[in-house]
Design goal:
alpha/beta, Rossmann fold, 2 domains, five-stranded parallel sheet, 14 helices, 5 strands
Length: 297
């Protein structure tokens, strides 16, 4: 087999035209690798987007560990539905709005996050005044789906502030007849369990931790088809795949970091494939080791 022949044709042609430095630089380019669970959640996101406005809109909690693909999913979803001009209207149309939950959420702080991407400022006045302004603005941009990232931050507040935050969420989806996607870790499910109405209306969609099996092997095969190395690595080899999974600790973000680090080392060393030695020497440190190092400072 000649150099790069194991790659998909477009990547093989690109790799042959790049220098070693360019191949290493390419590894830092954002890329999307699809897999079954991501496809299922992506389909559900599009279903929410196309849902007609009704009294009880369907909503979602997108749950997963840190660095396991949640942000990539919502970023891709939002990019398919960008803002657009609204000829004759006062506001542009923003069908999908992505915001972050403040580190210590309050009602006013959350309203500030809602208007920030729209380059607007909250008026002075009471909470009722600010709420009315935000509701009018979100109706004006014809919002369909509101994505609230890092929603587990709501747990940093008191039980009273958490209850108030959930009431604001309920008010938004009821009054605007929009779907809301709350994004966070597993603690978010517990937060919603205190309100039976919200629990029934926000269906959890889980991005599980990766484990050995056909799906993980498919993911490894997808990576191998695009990593610009001259020789095949056979990442699905049982011993190699088991070591890869153990090192990356089961999240797709860490898997990508590990394989990128290994690929850079493979290019620099002239080995041009990922093997046991490359994985050991590439300099990647698993999340648990990084956390332990911080605790020891």
């Amino acid at each position: 087999m000649s150099d790069f022949e194991h790659l998909i044709p477009a990547m093989a042609d690109k790799s042959r035209s790049m220098s070693d430095q360019e191949r290493k630089a390419w590894l830092d380019t954002p890329r999307w690798l699809t897999y079954t669970r991501a496809k299922e959640i992506d389909t559900k996101l599009e279903w929410l987007y196309g849902h007609p406005r009704v009294t009880r809109m369907p909503n979602m909690l997108l749950i997963g560990r840190t660095n396991n693909g949640k942000t990539d999913l919502i970023t891709r979803f939002a990019s398919r539905h960008p803002p657009c001009d609204n000829a004759g209207g006062e506001h542009i149309n923003v069908p999908v709005l992505v915001v972050q939950t403040p580190p210590k959420p309050t009602e006013a702080g959350f309203y500030m996050e809602l208007v920030r991407p729209l380059l607007r400022r909250l008026p002075n006045g009471s909470a009722d005044t600010k709420r009315a302004f935000v509701m009018g603005l979100l109706k004006g941009i014809q919002l369909k789906v509101l994505v609230i990232d890092e929603m587990h931050n709501m747990l940093s507040g008191t039980s009273q502030s958490q209850h108030l935050f959930l009431n604001v969420i309920k008010y938004l989806t009821n009054d605007l007849q929009i779907s809301i996607i709350g994004v966070g870790d597993q603690t978010l499910i517990n937060a919603f369990s205190v309100d039976e109405q919200l629990q029934n209306r926000f269906e959890p969609e889980i991005l599980p931790r990766w484990d050995r099996g056909k799906e993980f092997n498919r993911l490894l095969s997808s990576f191998e088809l695009i990593l610009p190395l001259r020789h095949p690595s056979h990442l699905v080899d049982p011993l190699l795949s088991m070591k890869i999974l153990s090192i990356c600790e089961g999240t797709i973000g860490e898997l990508s970091k590990l394989l990128n680090s290994a690929a850079r080392y493979a290019i620099d060393s002239g080995i041009e494939q990922i093997n046991d030695v490359v994985l050991t020497k590439c300099g990647y440190r698993p999340p648990s080791e990084r956390k332990k190092a911080v605790l020891e400072v």
